[in-house]
Amino acid sequence: MPCVYTTPAGLCDGTAPLSANEHYLPRALGNFQGDERLANRICNTCQQVCSRLEDVFAHNSPEAFFREMVGRVGRKNHKGKNIFYEPTFGISPLAILGKHPGHNFEILWELVPDPENPENRRCTPVSQLVFISDDGKSLRLPFRPGRWTAERIKAVLEKSGVKGDHIVTVGNSDDEAAEMKALTDALAPAGKEREVPPLVNGADIEGEMKAEISEKYVRAIAKVGFHYFLKYFPNFSGMEPEFDEIKTFIYHGKASRQIVRIEDQPFLRDLQQPAQG
Predict the structure, then answer these.
(1) The sheet that has 207-210: what strands, in order across it?
(2) Alpha-carbon gap, residue 57 to 221, rounded angstroms
(3) How far apart are CA 45 and CA 6, in angstroms?
(4) Environment class of residue 56 by beta-carbon count within 10 Å: exposed (0-12), middle (13-18) or buried (19+)?
């Protein structure tokens, strides 16, 4: 049987060998009892296409945030990625927004292991540059050494419509602070940035996690549903014309009908039905 993505025309050319080890449930979610692979239905080339979609699912999604909460389940031999600093396929990193104690503006936070109990997670400020306009607009840029230039930041500010009348820096090391100062001096030669000091004894904050529901994320969800169906409904070959639209959507993000529906519901059942007591 050829790869299921050889139909409709224009997706898979059918030249790559079939994979015996396709994870219909993303490996990033961990191991599942009784899990069996989807074998000899998807070719290696199409598996790579799906893998790129799952990269977004694993690193730039609500699921990515909860993976951080439980300690990044998934493949331990894969290089770790800080989802609060690094974009994924051009999609901005996840953002936890909350006001820094003693200040009236929001900054970015990240989840890190608690030094006293590594199995637990706590929030700490992301190294960042915060630009605040007099009109109230603001922009927060996660700071990675050597990644930003004054020209690049100016372009981002112009695109976002934030003037950046005030600049706030949050650094987690002396080296970062020095590079941030050089940037702020170039961006506002006559101005003065505000430096937010680190939290020494911790504090309680209220925060909000924001993740972009991107096209690639929605395509990853469609892939999970389709491959799961192929695994547990073997009477269907996957070549039936009724599957053409979902396969085209997975490959190219195009469809003449709705493939995935977004629901405004609590992400976890426990949040929807909290325990009493």
Answers:
(1) 117-125, 106-114, 95-99, 207-210
(2) 8
(3) 11
(4) buried
Say whether the peptide bond before residue 93 is cis (omega within 30 degrees of 0).
no
State pLDDT tens for residues 90-132.
Answer: 899 999 999 888 788 899 999 888 877 877 788 889 999 999 9
C-alpha gyration radius of the chain: 22
Give the global pTM.
Answer: 0.81
Of the candidates 172, 169, 199, the one whose C-alpha atom is nearest the C-alpha of residue 184 is 169
> Where do the domains of the chain lie?
4-70+212-268, 95-210
Any idea what the Cα angle at residue 73 is, between residues 208 and 200, rounded to 5°? Answer: 50
CA gap 58, 21 in Å, rounded: 19
Instruction: Please answer whether residues 39 and 24 qualify as being in contact, where contact means their C-beta atoms are separated by less than 8 angstroms.
Output: no
Euclidean distance between CA atoms 41 and 10, whole angstroms? 18
CB 109 within 8 A of CB 124: yes
50 CB burial (10 A radius; 0-12, 13-18, 19+): buried
DSSP 149: -
Structure tokens at 207: 């925060």
Spatial distance between the Cα atoms of 213 and 256, rounded to a whole number of angstroms = 20
- In this prediction, residue 198 carries a pLDDT of 64
CA distance 143 to 127: 5
Cβ–Cβ < 8 Å for 142, 129: no
